[in-house]
Amino acid sequence: MTTIPSQAAVAATGLRKSFGDQVALDGVDLEVAERTIFALLGPNGAGKTTLVKLLSTLLKPDAGTASVNGFDVATHPANVRESISLTGQFAAVDEILTGRENLILMARLRRLQDAGQIADDLLARFQLTDAATRRVATYSGGMRRRLDIAMSLIGNPPVIFLDEPTTGLDPQARIEVWNSVKALARQGTTVLLTTQYLDEAEQLADRIAILREGRIIANGTLAELKQLLPPAKVEYVEKQPTLEDVFLAIVGATGRTAASAPTRKEQR
Questions:
Q1: How many contiguous H segments (helices) and E segments (strands) does the chain have?
Q2: Domain map of the chain by residue range?
Q3: Can you give the pLDDT at residue 235?
Q4: Are the CB atoms for 147 and 93 separated by under 8 Å?
Q5: Looking at residue 168, what is its pLDDT?
Q6: What CATH number matches the domain at 8-220, 3.20.20.370, 3.40.50.300, 3.30.390.30, 3.90.1170.20?
Q7: How far is CA 86 from the centre of its chain?
Q8: Does the pLDDT of residue 258 top 50, yes or no?
């Protein structure tokens, strides 16, 4: 079997997808390096979830090409599925079962040996050992999400897609999930996550792409994106732009363009 030569864990060129007259993706180019966290940032309706579904073979593109772990999503979808795990916007866990039983069930569905040991290792890795024998219905939102991500790691997929992983979580639960995502990258997993939260992308991502109306309008590290703003006019103390400043200036959500962004200053 042939694979697509690429150093990127995820790559896309000219991806397009429409639903009737509605254009969801309009020529998306993307490259995600191995062992990194890549954040896809954009408002509702920007096309984030559609892109994840195309990359995970749940949808077929109308045009363009994409590969995951070296396999073309159109010609080798089975190999792509073996290489990935997808965690949606809401935790897909069985609330009747305990946390350990959820993990054992998933390991058995993947036909893995020693499902109990796999479950115990993941419970320890995600700091859920103390809650292992409790029904998931008693878990907090953050615990459920951590369990959901733990389940997605069964089988050691090299690439994980997280579609808005902290939607609906309280601040403490969000931090718990952030720590789990950072740990994934440290241990060698490539993570592509979608989010609407600017601080989430700023905290987690090695690179950030801003998606608007089906197109990527900016792509780079946080430092590179900050360079898109005009230099701050310093009178007393320079205040560096946040990711929120960059996002609003690029997207024009406040009716301003990057060229007309306000002067940033702060008195001592």
A1: 9, 10
A2: 8-220, 230-268
A3: 63
A4: yes
A5: 77
A6: 3.40.50.300
A7: 10
A8: no
